[in-house]
Amino acid sequence: MPELSQEEISQFVDDGFLTRQLSLSDAQIDALADMSWHHVTDMNPHFQRNNPDSWRGDVTDSCRIAAIPKRRGRVKLRECVQNEPLLRQTVFENDEVTEVIEGLLGPTAFPRPKPQALPRPQSRRARKLCRF
After folding, report:
1. 95-105 and 6-15 are packed helices; what angle lies between their axes, rounded to 10 degrees?
2. Interatomic CA distance for residues 75 and 60, integer angstroms
3. What is the 3 state secondary structure string of the chain?
4. Does residue 128 lie within any of the structural domains?
5. Those residues with Cβ within 8 angstroms of residue 56's Cβ, 6 or more apart along the chain or in another chain
6. What is the number of structural domains in the chain?
7. % of the chain with per-residue pLDDT over 70
8. Which of 11, 87, 91, 128 is 20 to 30 A away from residue 78, measured at CA?
9. Which of 24-28, 43-47, 106-110, 127-131 has the lowest mean pLDDT?
10. 114 pLDDT exceeds 70?
11. Same domain flag for 67 and 85
């Protein structure tokens, strides 16, 4: 990924965000779309992915309940997806993303994730079930 331009840095300082295109495979894009639709339809059963006529009425998301036009087309799913492994891999464990973050905020601003072991179950029954 090309280094940050002065214009991109200025945009981040002025606007508080930076938009950059990621190199994602078709499979990654499809998986992210599937994940998003799963959460949208879970909270809004009247929405049907392949039926745009169903995309009307109020939409529930992480922030509020409002119609799509009032939201300007935005649906926020942050509480639903923040622990999704697919999203973590695509964004937080993506070298392109971490390079941009480090370029804007410095290398210590965004420590790279370390693999974590699962915690040991506390009860004997759980340890037996999990074979610890």
Report:
1. 80
2. 8
3. CCCCCHHHHHHHHHHCCCCCCCCCCHHHHHHHHHHHHHHHHHHCCCCECCEHHHCCCEEECCCCEEEHHHHCCCCCCHHHHCCCHHHHHHHHCCHHHHHHHHHHHCCCCCCCCCCCCCCCCCCHHHHHHHCC
4. no
5. 67, 68
6. 2
7. 80
8. 11
9. 127-131
10. no
11. yes
Are 42 and 84 in the same domain?
yes
User: CB under 8 Å to 120, separation ≥6 — which residues?
Assistant: 127, 132
User: CA–CA separation, 41 vs 116, rounded Å?
Assistant: 31
Instruction: Give the residues across from 67 on adjacent strands.
Output: 58
Specify whether the CB–CB gap between 32 and 86 falls below 8 A.
yes
Instruction: Give Cα 100 to chain centroid, integer Å.
Output: 16
pLDDT digits (tens, 9 = 90+) for 47-99: 899 999 998 888 888 778 888 888 887 888 877 777 788 888 887 788 888 88
Task: Give the tokens for residue 82.
Answer: 């923040």
pLDDT at 67: 85
